[in-house]
Amino acid sequence: MKPWKTLATDGKFKLRQREREFMVLSEGKILMSSLQHGSEPELVRIGCARVDFDKPKIMVGGLGFGFILRAALDIAPDLAKVIVSEPSKTVVEWNMGPLASLNGRALDDERVIVEVGDVQRVLSKHRKGFDVILLDIDNGPFAVDLDDDYSVYSIGGLSSVRASLRSGGRLAVLSAGTHPGFNKRLTEVGFTASVQYASDGASLVFIGDVA
Prior knowledge:
Mean pLDDT: 90
Order of helices and strands: EEEEHEHEHEHEHEHEE
CATH architecture of the largest domain: 3-Layer(aba) Sandwich
């Protein structure tokens, strides 16, 4: 087996490649691997299930390797707009460079607009602007403290999400596991909450619907 090759470094982050696998490390620890995916199309399918018109506006929170964005573009109509919120400029640059082959050069699609910055800041610019919001951040609410006001999964963060969705809109959150009380939290900020298992049986999609 070939050794790992470091393709790029930015502060504590490193992008490495070995044959067809890519890996991002943070301070020596694996942050994400291109082989550890598969639920992204399910998140998009479930999230976009209520879209039945020609010009939806979709937000993808967290670019990563671009798998969710690719899946969204594959089902979105030609007149859709897909806003990508990614905190790291470096991740965006990597997706335009060495990672582009993983997602079919998704960032080149004319339907895509990239906004570099914190998800909540981006949401604040699009009040009642989205039909669908797809989130895959921090491995879902299972991995974070829901009382952290800086988290998009907090009451304040979810309130911002709710305010950014139009009537009939949907929030879909990919999670590595369940979290007690998260559906209750969705309900508290005005969503109709539910959960679906992804087809791989290993991931959950939390759903928040707007009437």
